[in-house]
Amino acid sequence: MARSGKKGKAGSPKKKAGGKKEKSSGGKEKKKGDREEAGSRLTPGRIRAVYGVFFLALSVFTFLCVFAPASAGIVGGGVRDALAWTLGLGRYVVPFAFLAGAVMAFRKAEVRVWLLVVGTAIISVSLLALLHIYTDPSVMFESKNLMSGGGAVGAVIAWPLVNLAGIIGAYIFIVAALISGIVIAFEERISAAWRAVVKKRVVKTKEAAPEKTVQDPNTAAERWKGKPQDVKVYPEKPIPPKVLQEEPNGQLSMKIAKPKSGKYKLPPASILKKSHDKAFSKQSNEERKQAIEHTLQSMGVDARVVKVSKGPTVSLFEVEVGTGEKVKRVTELEQDIAYALGSPDIRIYSPIPGRQAIGIEVPNNMRDTVLLGDVMQTLEPVKPHNQLTIAVGRGMSGEPVVLDLAQLPHLMLAGSTGAGKSCCINSIICCLLFRNRPDEVKLIMIDPKFVEFTWYDKLPHLLCEVINEPDFAAKALVWAVNEMERRYKLLQKQKVVHIDDYNAIAMKDDELEKLPKIVIVIDELGDLMIVARREVESSISRLTAKARAVGIHMIIATQRPSVDVITGVIKNNITARIAFQVASNVDSRTILGTKGAEKLLGKGDMLLDPGNIPQPERVQGALVQQKEIEFLTEYIKEQKVGDGVSINLDGVKMSTGEKLMDKDPLLDEAAEFVVLAGEASASMLQTTLKVGYARARRIIVEMSELGIVGPHQGSKSRKVLLTPEEFQEWKSRSND
Length: 736
Fold this sequence. Notes:
Elements lengths: L1 H39 L3 H24 L5 H15 L6 H14 L5 H20 L10 H6 L2 H58 L8 H8 L7 E3 L47 H17 L4 E8 L3 E8 L6 H4 L2 H8 L5 E3 L8 E6 L8 H5 L12 E6 L5 E5 L6 E4 L6 H15 L5 E6 L23 H25 L4 H10 L8 E6 L2 H7 L1 H14 L5 E7 L9 H6 L2 E4 L5 H8 L12 E5 L7 E5 L4 H13 L16 H5 L7 H11 L1 E2 L1 H8 L3 H13 L12 E2 L4 H12 L1
Parallel strand pairs: 1-7, 8-11, 8-12, 9-10, 10-11
Antiparallel strand pairs: 2-3, 3-5, 4-5, 6-7, 6-14, 12-13, 13-14, 15-16
Helix pairs in contact: 2-3, 2-4, 3-7, 5-7, 9-11, 14-17, 16-17, 23-24
């Protein structure tokens, strides 16, 4: 026992010693962490402040040394003599040079520091050589001449030049070096000042020139010409069809005739406004780049930013990870990077299509406005193969983004209220009106909100007046289905497979009628699905599946990106989609099949998926102003080509309406019950309405045809497709 007690006592000091070691190691780790934390606090702004204070101190000290050496002590006198012997008269400029460096550090000057330093050094040496070049070469290095001339620096440069090239030759070389230094140091500022002067002269010339009220259509067409190689066209660039020429052995040729030119003139480009280029600071993105790299390094991730692309709304930082580093480690740090950048709306995705890099999208401090005129001027001149080319906006690097509706062939837009859907639709419609005659493209516009398409009413491009009532909208879609079937029969008679081939034959045969392309624009699909769900969904499904070959295209927009509105059938047939800002990633997945739209910034910021790229592209939508739309529509209406009404929807019969003329008297009561219950089945109606199974089953079928309940799901109850508020709206319209 005694031994064990001694051992216990003897063991206690060891434990204490071990505890001291642990404590000391913990203290070292704490000190190391404090040092790392202190190092991380040295932000670029604080580093610039330190440089500024240092340069300011040097400026004051050298000023005293040069102009009042007695007040600077022994060191001041030595510095004055050294500066006088080295720089000569240039010693008087040294304090002001340090002062300029302090000002640049404090004001965060947006210049390339190394170019400025190199250029300033060349300028200084050249000026010192010029001060010393008039001195006799035999006495250039005397102390008196050094202090009253360009110093030792000027003498070292001037002496060999004078001896080898003479005084005139020395002047030539030194002046050339002086100009080179000015170009290296201030080339960007000189270029900016020159552009500003030229721009002012151009503006004054335009103001002095008389305004033109009528513009030649050829001149307008020339203004649309841009740089097609810099334009992104989705899904691919339209290619003109090959013209078959007649062979020497007598083979028949197949030439496409030119469209007949009438009195109608395409609207001029001067209607649309152009935005001015904005100066962009590279300093902000450089600081963000350093913040991203510092955050990744502090988390132990081997990665670096290799490229920064500045777009109108966001900037893209391309991050490459080191060998053996997991990409997941970067994508998991989204919140940490957002905290370091001070922006919660960043988006990280991997990989960037076509590159071995991770993309980090960060909103810009100032957004650039993209006007429709900026993108329209980059489109190619109008030809038969690119009539339906529409301008969308600008991409991540500022390049124009264009869609070819003929190849898509349909487009769906979705997003929350105020995100930019209606503005995007107006831009698309304006593009079609700018590039097509009324006999080439016809429009059917459905506007349940009553206010979005009021400017386009009475246009000659319209097949009917702008539709506001859901019942007439359903009839218009049924008419489009019937027109599609009629056109297919015409193509069958001529043994062609596409509307362009048919129109090529019709141009040479007067008995055949040329078929214009039809674009159906629906501004709010959700409202139509409430009133006539079965007819609308059935018509849209048939049109999106078959109407491409006969020249019928659809543009559908909705602010309710839910599975009740964007059903699986519609979603599968419309592969080209544009997602605007939404509330959650669930809505984003409903539209695009992937998350990301919840991170958008609104006001035209969109994700574009044309259906043939692996990742949706971030695009800033083009803005068309209300005045521009009014000028465009008035220009078209003043030509008085036609009233724009060529079909009558009153005679269109809907199959659902004919089937439900003798609807069950208990249908309204049953519909109200299942909407409040949230599910529907024949057994529920049997118990509640006290009817037989056959009648309850017929009521369920009638509600399915009206779009109140979903399709049959085996032994499960049917899903109710309407909310109580939507049912009350449907009920009031049915009673009317």
